[in-house]
Design a protein that fits this description.
By secondary structure, the protein is an all-alpha fold. The protein is 62% helix and 0% strand.
């Protein structure tokens, strides 16, 4: 069949779409737990593999709390 996707090709495209959705959701700042539920991941470590900003200090809890306290002091 010309123009038809094989099962492997369509599965690969679906995987890419799913990966893109999860990565974009995490990049947009959605909570890990919410993205985990949307992706139907049983283990949050599976979802965390998609988090490119995991090492970013801007998203570290201590930095977020410090920024909040600094803003409240003004």
């Amino acid at each position: 069949m010309t123009g038809s996707l094989t099962r492997q090709e369509s599965g690969s495209d679906l995987f890419t779409l799913r990966h893109t959705f999860i990565t974009a959701a995490l990049d947009a700042g959605l909570p890990l737990r919410d993205v985990q539920e949307a992706a139907c991941h049983a283990d949050p470590r599976t979802t965390m593999r998609h988090d490119r900003a995991r090492g970013s200090l801007d998203r570290h809890a201590a930095c977020i709390v410090a920024a909040y306290i600094a803003g409240a002091a003004q």
